[in-house]
Design goal:
The chain is mostly beta strands and 125 residues long. It has one domain: Lipocalin. The protein is built from two helices and eight strands, in the order ααββββββββ. The longest helix has 14 residues. The two termini are 26 Å apart. The N terminus and C terminus are likely disordered.
């Protein structure tokens, strides 16, 4: 439920009334290799932009779609931000530095069915 509230706020800010949020968003719950749970909200705009909304360390992060050899990759910032790479129900969350993903501390997550976690937050080491 909390994730839906997070998504509603972000959709309003991003789209400025361009379309109905339910037509442009989806959410997915994930279980990660460190035992944490997380959720991602995916937003696509009529203008062709795509975003993933994540709650990391208790803060809301909006990640824009980025170049990826396969799957979908979203980044919050090229330096000092986060990279979220998803493909076939799996996701990798990494910190970024100098435009590249930092492998140390990367979380490996898998999609799970059901509601996204209520807290919609986790910690990346």
């Amino acid at each position: 439920m909390m994730m839906k509230k997070c998504v509603a706020v972000v959709v309003g800010l991003l789209l400025s009334g361009a379309a109905l949020a339910e037509d442009l968003t989806s959410t997915q719950a994930y279980a990660c290799n460190d035992g944490s749970e997380m959720a991602a909200a995916y937003i696509s705009t009529d203008a062709g932009n795509a975003y993933a909304v994540l709650m990391i360390d208790g803060r809301l992060h909006i990640a824009e779609i980025a170049v990826s050899a396969s799957g979908a990759r979203y980044i919050t910032a090229k330096d000092g931000g986060y990279s979220w790479h998803v493909k076939r129900g799996r996701g990798l969350l990494s910190k970024t530095q100098g435009g590249k993903d930092v492998q140390e501390g990367t979380l490996s997550c898998r999609a799970v069915s059901g509601e996204p976690p209520r807290e919609c937050s986790f910690t990346v080491n």
